[in-house]
Amino acid sequence: MNFPENLRYTKDHEWIRLEGDTAIIGITEFAQSELGDIVYVEIETLDQHLGAEAVFGTVEAVKTVSDLFLPVTGTIIEINPGLNNKPELVNSDPYGEGWMIKVKVDNPADVDALLTSEAYSVLVGN
What we know:
- This protein has helices spanning about 30-35, 80-85, 90, 115-125; strands at about 10, 15-20, 20-25, 40, 50, 55-60, 65-70, 75-80, 100-105.
- By secondary structure, the protein is of the alpha+beta class.
- It has a single domain (about 10-105), classed as CATH 2.40.50.100.
- The strands form two sheets. Strands 1-2-3-9-8-5 form a six-stranded antiparallel β-sheet. Strands 4-6-7 form a three-stranded antiparallel β-sheet.
- The longest helix is centred in the first third of the chain and has 7 residues, at about 30-35.
């Protein structure tokens, strides 16, 4: 499995990429493979300020529904509009077109405390 080194990861299987004080967040290749075919992504937290580990939405697969957890404290400033019509982008391109939200991060240094690709790989037994 692929866990890009330029990203940070959570124990809940989200990834985060920091660009200045904005973070792009999605779920990992491992998470999407465990969930199976994703049929719907529900995120209704636009413009909300949420704490780290708060639920920012859900992802629905054929077999299950899973909560999505925010890796760091911040305000949701954008939701990927492409997921409305093509939620399967999360399966086919989890680190690219399948991103989920953009967040204005309160403290960009919080990202450094998250898992590296190597640590995440160990967590999932890759």
